[in-house]
Design goal:
Layout: E1 4-15, H1 19-30, E2 36-38, H2 64-77, E3 81-83, E4 85-91, E5 97-103, E6 110-120, E7 124-126, E8 142-143, H3 146-149, E9 157-161, H4 165-175, E10 180-184, H5 195-202, E11 207-210, E12 213-220, E13 225-232, E14 235-240, E15 243-246, E16 250-252, E17 282-284, H6 296-318, E18 340-342, H7 345-354, E19 359-364, H8 369-384, E20 390-395, H9 400-405, E21 413-417, E22 423-428, H10 430-443
Helix pairs in contact: 1-2, 1-6, 8-10
Bound molecules: flavin-adenine dinucleotide (FAD).
Flavin-adenine dinucleotide binds at residues 15-21, 38-43, 45-47, 49-50, 53, 55, 86-87, 121-124, 166, 169, 253, 286-288, 294-297, 299.
């Protein structure tokens, strides 16, 4: 595949960085392994997008990001090695298994990792409407994460598309921020099962449910969303809106395993016994195997079972002390970057006016998971490009007038300015921002 090889064979590698993966990591860590956890683009997983988790045992209510950070810390404290990389290929046709990864630290280095066994916990990808305007206005008013982007819609009018628990939660979150929240439900009733939340939402004065309604088109003025074209019980009408939040289900991230493992008709990985897949020594957990429940606690339960099964498999195959071969964690050298935190509009204007080099600005929020993921890459670029590009960051909750004046509609957003202070490029979301940073290294 052209990727660098790691000489050593890992006993157990975990693919994914959500609740399922992290629970497996805790169990394996406590059993004396130092499992590699390939976290992917969303460390902490989907739960980081929930502002309010109320069904996690032991916590009356907790923010999803806070909960996953606790679990991540617990996994690390028990010896897990969390790696900022994504899996781009697997070869399970022979032993050891080969897992090919691409680094997400900006270098895009690829690596072939050899493993005796692996646990797949790569979750699902949110679904899209596939209607006109959706792609065009993605990040300019269309999003699928209220927790990430909700605060940008203060006192505005937004629509949530969907009728399940995720849609209810998104609408509830947005009802505290937006002036008005429409919920577009395709069918004649909700299919959410969290009855208490549904009852509460139905009594929330600024929330309106539109049943038997589909979004046919997302409309905008070139820069941002201005409304939607709806089809309500067969009739079409336009509705003015500032933002559209999608909560319309998800598809398992299992394409990479199509040839290697048995999948069902919807792409969920099929299990033969507990978390065992169609291939011995390969286990799968959480939403990627679960077309029905898709809950944090069930992903955690799967993660625990898979870890125990994988341990048995390794002990049987290599003997009870096999894990002792795992090496100690390798620390990365610290970087000495300089990213300037902007605290006022005036400070920002001064920066723009006085800089003789281009400026990259990261608009972020403290509670935004993807923002946290991009921060180390941004900081590493600040280090490498010191003197060539200035790197600034803006907390949108702290300097809101600035994010408003630059029409920041989703997070993270990175804007590039040239030496004259003119905006030259904009990226929304971790992937486009990583690509922009990569290009900056080439250009400078
Ligand atoms: C808005 C929202 C609110 C929710 N609220 C609740 C709630 O209150 N209570 C509850 O129980 N559940 C809730 N859920 C559901 C819960 O988040 C999921 O059931 C749970 O996160 C599933 O965990 P998982 O580990 O299977 O997958 P995920 O959490 O989806 O994690 C998948 C992981 O795989 C990684 N990954 C993906 N592709 C790759 C790749 N190619 N290489 C490497 N890694 C990869 C990702 O980076 C991620 O870390 C909510 C979900 C949403 C969207």
């Amino acid at each position: 595949m052209g990727a660098a090889e790691v000489a050593r064979t890992e006993p157990i590698v975990i693919l994914g960085g959500g609740i399922g993966a992290l629970t497996s990591a805790i169990y394996l860590g406590r059993a004396g392994f130092s499992p590699l956890v390939i976290e992917g683009r969303l460390p902490g997983g989907l739960l980081t997008q929930s502002h309010l988790v109320q069904n996690w045992p032991g916590e009356m209510e907790i923010n999803g990001l806070e909960l996953t950070e606790k679990i991540r810390a617990q996994a690390e404290a028990n010896g897990a090695q969390l790696i900022s990389a994504e899996v781009i290929g697997v070869d399970f046709s022979k032993r050891p298994l080969i897992i090919t990864t691409r680094s997400l630290d900006g270098s895009e280095e690829t690596l072939n990792i050899r493993a005796e066994s692996c646990i797949i916990a790569m979750g699902t990808e949110p679904n899209y409407l596939h209607v006109p305007g959706e792609k065009e206005f993605w990040g300019k008013g269309v999003t699928n994460c209220a927790v990430c982007d909700g605060s940008l819609y203060k006192d505005q009018v937004v629509g949530v598309v969907g009728g399940g628990d995720a849609a209810v939660l998104e609408a509830l979150y947005l009802s505290n921020i937006a002036r008005k929240v429409y919920v577009f439900v395709r069918k004649g009733s909700l299919r959410a099962v969290e009855e208490k939340r549904v009852a509460f939402l139905k009594q929330t004065p600024n929330v309106e449910f539109l049943y038997n309604t589909t979004v046919e088109e997302i409309q905008g003025d070139g820069n941002q969303v201005t409304g939607v074209l709806l089809k309500e019980a067969g009739k079409k009408r336009e509705l003015a809106l500032d933002g559209v939040f999608l909560a319309i289900g998800s598809t398992p991230n299992s394409k990479l395993f199509q040839k290697a493992l048995k999948l069902d008709s919807k792409g969920y990985i099929v299990r033969t016994k507990d978390q065992q897949t169609s291939l011995k020594g390969v286990y799968a957990v959480g939403d990627i195997v679960d077309p029905i429940y898709k809950q944090a606690i069930s992903a955690a339960g799967d993660g625990a079972k898979a870890a125990l099964q994988a341990q048995d498999y390794i002990s049987e195959k290599l003997g009870p002390m096999a894990h002792v071969t795992s090496p100690p964690k390798q620390e990365k050298a610290p970087v000495s970057h300089e990213v300037i935190e902007i605290v006022s509009v005036e400070q920002f204007e001064e920066e723009l006016a006085n800089s003789s080099i281009p400026i990259a600005v990261d608009f972020y929020a403290t509670w935004c998971g993807p923002c946290k993921r991009i921060a180390p890459t941004f900081a590493a670029s600040a280090d490498t490009l010191a003197g060539k590009v200035r790197f600034l960051k803006v907390n949108v909750d702290r300097v809101t007038p600035l994010s408003n004046s630059y029409n920041v509609r989703a997070m993270p957003t990175m804007i590039l300015f040239d030496a004259s202070g003119a905006e030259t490029e904009r990226g929304v979301g971790p992937v486009p921002i990583t690509q922009m940073l990569k290009q900056l290294h080439v250009d400078q």
